[in-house]
Amino acid sequence: MIDIDLGKRVALAGNPNTGKTTLFNRLTGGNAKVGNYPGVTVERQEGTMKLADGVSARLLDVPGTYSLSARSVEEQIAMQAVAGLHPLELPDLVLVVVDATQLARNLYLVLQVIETGLPVVVALNMVDAQEAAGLAVDADAIQRDLGVPVVPTAAKSGRGLRELREAVRAVLADPERGRPGPRWRPAGGPLRQDVETVGAALPDEWHRGIQDRREALALWALLSLDDEDELDGVPSEVRITASERRRAADASGRDLDLEIVSGRYGWIDVHMPGFLREPEKPRVSRTDRLDAVLLNPVAGFAIFLLVMGVVFQSLFAWADPAIGAVEDLFGWLQGVVEATLPAGLFTEFVTGGLIEGVGSVVVFLPQILLLFLFIGLMEDTGYMARVAYLMDRVMRALGLHGRAFVPMMSGFACAIPAILATRTMERSRDRLLTMMVVPLMTCSARLPVYTLVIAALFPPSEVFGFLPVQGMLMVAMYVFSVVVALAAAAVLGRTVLRGPRVPLLLEMPAYRLPHGPSLLRMMWTRTRTFLTEAGTVILVCTIGMWLLLTFPREPAPEAGAAASVEAVAGADADAAREAERLRQSYGGRLGRFIEPVIEPLGFDWKMGVGLIGAFAAREVFVSTMGVVYGFGEDTDEESVSLREKIRSETRTDGRPVYSPLVGLSLMVFFALACQCMSTLAVVRRETRTWRWPLFLFTYMTALAWIASFVVYQGGRLLGLG
């Protein structure tokens, strides 16, 4: 018996919706290391697969792809992982997962992998669903014609896993068992010349001197490289040569893509009759019956709105008890620390810096977990593809496609999980464009600000005798955010993030019950990634904000300030001193420094301090304003004292600081400004650069300033201020 080195590498490849992730978890026992592929944010999972006789191999879960032809980053990673191109290692074997109910389409990828010259084993998955549909797939015939081991499996139930492990071990021990040579290759003519020309331009480290591999990579280059691809790391000689051959083919009236794709599918069409036997009278499947309702323009859209309402409610209201519990836990912890440690700067740093910083990260967990739960359910059941289909017509007009709608809707609860939800989108350009507009959606953190301003400055009267002014204003802020977000997507998609309008190509997978363990594991791994990566940046920013609002500890009071503080008697004296200390802090000084910039919006330096404090979290604006106005740190949106103070605050000339026009300007600013360092931290994590967070902050702040300026100054011109 030939022994196997424990360092053998197996790449697990397959189309989306083939049960590949479930099979990966079954083969590794769910004990996988999660990280990212080099240089990108695409998730990488690698685990140990136990084979027969105690032998193990390393199993890499390759991103799902319909073919090795690549235009996007994820598709390029799939090609690099399968073919072993830099910076990824060459696998010793490729395990291709095939959906037995979608055999013809899945075999296309199998043919491509075989062409690379690597040993291949095929897992013919979902044979239980295939049998339930009345289909009969001949695994022996497929194995004979492909020339590689083919093992029927049902990953959810564990059927066929022992036989699959044995097949993998056998091919690792004797690679020639899974290396039959290409099933299809260009026979001659112009296509053969194209392949040879591009193959000659390939670097030696790509093809390793193997002719079959050289041809496979040349075909990949001819299909993948053009003016619209997003691929990096391709040698310039390869790109130039492939582009020249494509242009020459176009000039001669040839369809190069069709020649290559039809060649492979021609092989599949010839052999399919021996692989699959369908019933004489095809049954109307459960999927077809459900799609007749869920894809209906009227009923389907109504159901979709209901589903999104449930998702929105869960993120907005159902998560609230858990969020409150997290806040109470950290509040209790702060109280324990304050009671245990002596009063002083160190205690304030631990409670207001460290504990508050960690709490500002952990408080997002309930929403993130719920969002990933719903996304996982919609993906695993097959409903996510239907959502994208229903919304594609609307989103396409904005330069996006239907998959962008779910993250944008999730932004109503919180931009953090909404940005993480953009991972369901294939093209990096679409993900980036969605990230740039999601923070414009009215998240729950803006509500305390809206509530305070509306309650303080707008009377509880009615319009037309039945429409409440306060309620209508709240609804208007939500509608305003949606309109601006859609308009921003349309503008950015045609300027900064201009890209071709790629049609939405969707597979409508059969409806299936989700696999619970895989769903829970996905929720945990993605949440852990958020905590360890984005959470670190959020923690640092929170501590930085605490430092700004805490130091200097004992500033020298300005002329007249001390007398003003001492004039306050009773219980408000300490609060007044705290407000003056905050005024003299670096954050307060920064607020006064930016006052000339925000004054045209109707804001004074006190609001400037609130805006700076709100950068840690938008809802902090309310408590920061409470401190500024001398009501202590326990002030919240329900405080009548703060509302009354806002109403009665006057300028030196006797004019009120706050008016309904100022309140409207302030709400517009909060609706559009990126007052959330957590959002910037997550964008930094997802894009792996500070370029896009800085762009996001800059364009949203400029947009907020301009809109608030128009509202305030326009209102004054109309005599409303």
Describe the overall structure.
By secondary structure, this protein is an alpha/beta fold. It folds into 4 domains: 9-178, Rossmann fold (3-Layer(aba) Sandwich); 189-277, Helix Hairpins; 299-444 and 475-498 and 517-525, no CATH class; 536-717, no CATH class. 59% of the residues lie in helices and 7% in strands. The chain is built from 33 helices and 11 strands. A 7-stranded mixed β-sheet has the order 2-3-4-1-5-6-8, with helices on both faces. A two-stranded antiparallel sheet has the order 7-9. A hairpin with a 6-residue loop joins strand 2 and strand 3.
What tags apply to this protein structure?
Helix Hairpins; single chain; 721 residues; 4 domains; two-stranded antiparallel ribbon
Question: How many DSSP E strands?
Answer: 11
Shape: elongated
Distance between the termini: 89 Å
Average pLDDT works out at: 81
Number of helices: 33
Number of domains: 4
Task: Report the major sheet.
Answer: 7 strands, mixed
Low-confidence stretches: 630-640
The percent range for helix content is 55-70%
Instruction: Supply the helix-strand structural class.
Output: alpha/beta
